[in-house]
Amino acid sequence: MPAADAAGGRRIGVADLVAPSPATLLRRRILRHWGLLIGGGILIAIAAVALLAPLLAGYDPYDQQLARKLIPPVWHASAKATWQHPLGTDQLGRDYLTRLVYGARISLLIGISAMLISGVIGTTLGVLAGYFGGRVDMLVTFIVTTRLSMPVVLVALAVVAIIGSSLTVVIWVLGLLIWDRFAVVMRSATQQVCAREFILAAQAVGCSTSRILLTEIAPNVVNHLIVVATLEMAQAILLEAALSFLGLGVQPPTPSWGLMISEAKGLMFFDPWLISIPGVALFLMVLAINLVGDGLRDVTAPENRN
Fold this sequence. Notes:
- Helices cover 67% and strands 1% of the residues.
- Helix 11 runs antiparallel to helix 13.
- The relative contact order is 0.14.
- It is mainly alpha-helical.
- Strands 1-2 form a two-stranded antiparallel sheet.
- The protein has a single domain, classed as MetI-like fold, CATH 1.10.3720.
- It contains 13 helices and two strands; from the N terminus they run E-E-H-H-H-H-H-H-H-H-H-H-H-H-H.
């Protein structure tokens, strides 16, 4: 029951005496973090557009009609602009809005797949090195150092040029090349957790190594894992765009934002919207992913905020 405050006569309720739950505190931090809300909103919108591409797109992304090529977007003061093609058409007469919508699928697929592949490799190596130390740590450190000595873009260009370029090849090449940040961060985070008393207590009572790794260490390093995963996902999307721009990424006629920029580079001085539209879409996706990663770090571990 509410009680009277002797100082001012204000009634004190149960809510004033009981501390808010962790879920309530987390919800409050999320609602107050504008970066996370904005980035999450943009990312959810892009994901929804990618999932609903067949419903949102009015044309086939591969349909070429030279009779309707280079129709400008509707905001251009041109008699050719039409609402049938709000973002215009490219040099082959393909609807640009349709290709942009389907391109979101390609970018998200590559970003998520490459992030998962690199995450499994890097997290496994980093956790093992941080937990066991000694020779295991030295071996993992040597592997990471060897990987860091090889430039990602040059190695990816060489591998794709030798093996051939396709969506599957690009995903695996990127996934096998960007795991080093996972390994470095997870090694450091695991070493910090292993120095805590509850790890020593678990070892003292005879817990198995697998149980300690899964139930004691994993929950305490997941925050670092989320941040690195978002960074690597954004990096994979940018690297795919770079490879596609150089002609060694996703191959035509697959709708890819990087490939759309590459195909339009010869017309950038005459029809700059052909580059600016996929470029802005790529910028917004990478920005949203980074905002979500930073926001999740801030709301799940506010004590680590700078």
